[in-house]
Amino acid sequence: MKRKMILIATLASLMAAATLAQAEDHRLAAERLDDVLAKASAFGFTHFREIEVENAESVEIEGWLDDEWQAEMRLSLQSGESLEEERKRREGGAWGMSEDDVRLAMEVAVAEGLAEFEEIEVDRDGRVEVEGRDGEGRELEVRSRQGERDMREMERD
User: Fold this and answer.
1) How do residues 88-139 score in pLDDT, each as one tens digit?
2) Which of 56, 97, 150, 152 has the most CB atoms in a 10 Å sphere around its CB?
3) Please, which residues have CB within 8 angstroms of residue 18's CB and are 6 or more apart in sequence?
4) Rounded to the nearest 5°, which phi and psi values hold at 12?
5) Positive/negative CA dihedral, 57, 60, 64, 69
6) How far apart are the two ends of the chain, measured CA to CA in Å?
C-alpha cells in the first residue's frame, strides 16, 4: 500500500512538472520581441493584428503583408521561415499595429511588470492586450490603446 501511494505521488509530480514545462514553452522573454518582429518584417508583415507564442521555436502571426494581402502564419524563430501559412486577399486595406506600435505596447506591459509574453493583439478599435507572466510567474494582462504610452487596465492572477 505504501509503495502504491509513493508511485501515485511520483506520477502526480511528474505530470505537474510536464504541465509546467509545457506552459513555459508558450512564453518568450519580453526582450525577444525585437527578434520576432525582425523575422516577421523580413517575411513581409507590415501590420500586426496578433502575435502568439506557440513554443520556444515558433510564433503564430496574424496581420497584413500589404494593403491587399492578409496572412496568418506560424513562423520559425530560428530560421525565420514559414512553417504554416495562409493568405487571403482582402478589400478595405491593412489595419493593425506597426512594429513601433507593438514595441510601445510591450514597453507599457514591461513597465507594469511583464517579464514573458504569450500574446499581443489589437482589435479594429485600437484596443491592445498583452498577456504573459511577471517575474514571479504570475499571469498578467495589460491593456492599452494603440499608439499610447499609458496603461488602461491590468489584471494579475
Assistant:
1) 999 989 999 999 999 999 999 999 999 999 999 999 999 999 999 999 999 9
2) 97
3) none
4) -60, -40
5) positive
6) 38
Q: How far is CA 37 from CA 6, 55, 138, 142, in A?
A: 47, 16, 25, 20
Q: Which three cell numbers stand for residue 104?
A: 510601445
Mean pLDDT for all residues in the chain: 87
CB 84 within 8 Å of CB 74: yes
Angle between helices 99-111 and 33-43 (to 10 degrees): 170
The phi and psi torsions of 150 (rounded to 5 degrees) equal -100, 140
98: CB partners within 8 A, 6+ apart? 46, 47, 48
Threshold 0.85, pTM exceeds = no
- Return the sign of the alpha-carbon dihedral for residues 32, 126, 48, 62: positive
- The answer to whether the CB of 59 falls within 8 A of the CB of 74 is yes
28's grid cell? 518568450
